[in-house]
Design a protein that fits this description.
- This protein is mainly alpha-helical.
- The protein has one domain (about 40-135).
- The protein is about 75% helix and about 0% strand.
- The protein contains 6 helices and no strands.
- The chain has helices at about 1-5, 20-25, 40-65, 65-70, 75-105, 110-135.
- Helix 3 packs antiparallel against helix 5 (about 75-105) and helix 3 crosses helix 6 (about 110-135).
- The radius of gyration is 20 Å and the shape is flat.
- The model is unreliable at about 1-5 and about 20-35 (pLDDT under 50).
Length: about 140
């Protein structure tokens, strides 16, 4: 959410879709509209899911490096793993939930929910693709 704080409140990107919405927006000073196109849902959610996949691949690469863990003292290894768990949950949580929560809190509940479920759908697609590739080997 930290990265979204600099751009809060969201800028008006598109005109309000109807005359009544325009009147509502014009009557309030701090009200911003943000209308996302369907292609923006797909691209935003795809980039978020791709970021999660890239992060998972990087962490997997780190954890599969046995020479890296040979250098870590046995007493510090549990601390490292727990910190990695917390950092991983924060990063992936931000990538999956950051934009949907920002949209939801700005009053665009439908758009926030759509971006969230589209991101989950992309992640499920990545998992299915990886499983299919592994089963075909």
């Amino acid at each position: 959410m930290f990265l979204y704080a600099a751009a809060w409140p969201p800028k008006r990107l598109y005109a309000a879709p109807s005359a009544t919405a325009s009147a509502q927006v014009a009557g309030t000073e701090n009200c911003y509209t943000y209308s996302m196109k369907k292609s923006e849902f797909a691209s935003r959610s795809f980039l978020n899911a791709l970021g999660v996949l890239a992060y998972i691949l990087a962490i997997t690469r780190l954890l599969s490096n046995k020479s890296f863990f040979a250098k870590i003292p046995e007493s510090i290894a549990p601390i490292f793993i727990l910190l990695l768990l917390i950092i991983s949950a924060s990063i992936t949580g931000f990538l999956v939930l950051g934009k949907p929560i920002a949209l939801y809190l700005s009053g665009l509940k439908k758009e926030g929910v759509i971006v969230f479920f589209a991101t989950l759908a992309w992640l499920a697609t990545f998992v299915a693709t990886i499983v299919a590739v592994l089963l075909l080997k």
